[in-house]
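Problem statement: downstream parser choked on a complex file, so we are re-checking the raw output for the heme C run. The parser issue turned out to be on our end (a line-ending mismatch), but while we're here, posting the original submission so the record is complete.
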Amino acid sequence: MRFLVFCLVALGALWMAWAQDARVGELLPREATFENPSGRLTVLNADGPVATKGHPFFEPVGTNGRACVTCHQPANAMSVSGDAIRERWRASGGKDPIFAAIDGSNNPSLPQDQEASHSLLLKRGLFRIALQWPPARNAEPEFTIEVVSDPTGVNRDPRWGLTGVAHAVSVFRRPRPVANLKYVLEPDSTPFNVKLGVLLDKDPETGLPVSMNMMADARAGTLKIQAEDAYRTHLEGKKGLTPGELAQITAFEKQVYVAQTWDRGAKELTGGDGPGALGPANLLKEQAGVLNSPAKPVFLSFAAWQKDTEFRQSVARGNDIFLNRQFWVKNVGHINSIGLGNPAKRSCAVCHNAVMSGMDRAPGWVDLGTTNYPTWTEPDVASTTAELPVFKVTCRAEAKPHPFLGRVIYTSDPGRALITGKCADIGAITMGQFRGLAARAPYFVNGSAKTLMELVDYYDRRFDMRLTGQEKQDLVNFLGVL
Ligand code: HEC
Ligand code: HEC
């Protein structure tokens, strides 16, 4: 068994080496296992081995040498880790297509051969996302945007900036995992966004409601729309994807599952009578669309580990804190503003309530505060050490203000509001899934938490949780095995 695992890991490493320099291997096996700092992650292709040669997810179908896999790597839980990005810079002398000027640099107008021009990607794993302003589907937004601080120069650039040719707001975001997508795509059980009391967006082809849980701002409702957008932007594709290519991409995306399967502390994560949520086979087996309940908690039961090794006991305690530890959730738009009260004594699972994924059953954009001053992860507004742009957003007098931040808001990423133009959505970021976290640091939309401990520390500060050192470690150990 140990030898088999070793072989799979070796095979995985080999496959990676091929995939990374775009000479993709011929076959991604049904199960491939990859090393990461805290253990091993397994990628499961439910429909069997994937022939990657000629496959539009794995081959550069655009114009800049990139493929989808460039930023959605099997070894990194189908996202891409900061470590993998830095390694590619080192190995390619900055020539790898992942560093393409368009969004793999701080600003396409900067000299591209310098490391400093790619600092946000190299230091924080962030790609530039340029969103047209005002948004196409909402020509009269409730607020105006000014660029207050522009460390990359891109938002004031005559070509790429807000008042430039592009008329775009550039924000910088982490890639999200392209795996376990049934959990991301399953719409809520009602056709309504229950938080806001409005209808969910619809799939233009089927007319059916979509989950609105994809991308940090839910701007793409379906995998097709998303893939076409990724092709035009990240791949700088010009001709458009053919229906056959689109079908191949979305078919691959729907059948791929990832999760940790081995952990340095907890050891084997799957098999036997261990926790039923771990490993990709359980993600394949379980139903999507189930809401957290005492009968079926978010990551099922860790009872089997309550009387096991010290490390496994710590994981079980971490799960218990995640589910049950109550703290005062405060000033979070679309949580404290929807009748739960402000503050509201709740646990992590009030937001992260979808079974197996840790996402939100309802559309999951809330302004936890990672991108809005003063709770954001960045230095003070006036600081000269800022790495991310700062925007000043001013809500029009007749608009309904943001429920907790009023009419003038400083933000490094307005999130959902860039799509809806609504003050109430400023800084609202869609919760992503919790799977394969160990393989894809850094965390949060803006890559501000370098480690899971930094992520937990953010919550501890944000909600004054007063976690002990041991409790923080328990949460970290728990998140790391998912
Ligand atoms: C240059 C890097 C890059 C490339 C290349 C790329 N992506 Fe992405 N992908 C991202 C980023 C960044 C996000 C998150 C964007 C956001 O939240 O606004 C993302 C998000 C996604 C998501 C949403 C996942 C979720 O759960 O929210 C899907 C699906 C996806 N990409 C598919 C693709 C496909 C298909 C391709 C190829 C056509 C592709 N990507 C190419 C960087 C990339
Ligand atoms: C008020 C709602 C809310 C609560 C409570 C909450 N979260 Fe989150 N969580 C979010 C949002 C929103 C995001 C996405 C924010 C971002 O990416 O900047 C997120 C993201 C995450 C991520 C994903 C990070 C990534 O980059 O993929 C993890 C892990 C996480 N939260 C853990 C926790 C833990 C542990 C707790 C309890 C201590 C908790 N959350 C409590 C709303 C919440």
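For whoever reads this later: The pocket of heme C (ligand 1) is lined by residues 66, 68, 70-72, 103-104, 127, 129, 173, 175-176, 178, 184, 214-217, 223, 226-227, 230-231, 234-235, 249, 253 (CB under 6 Å).
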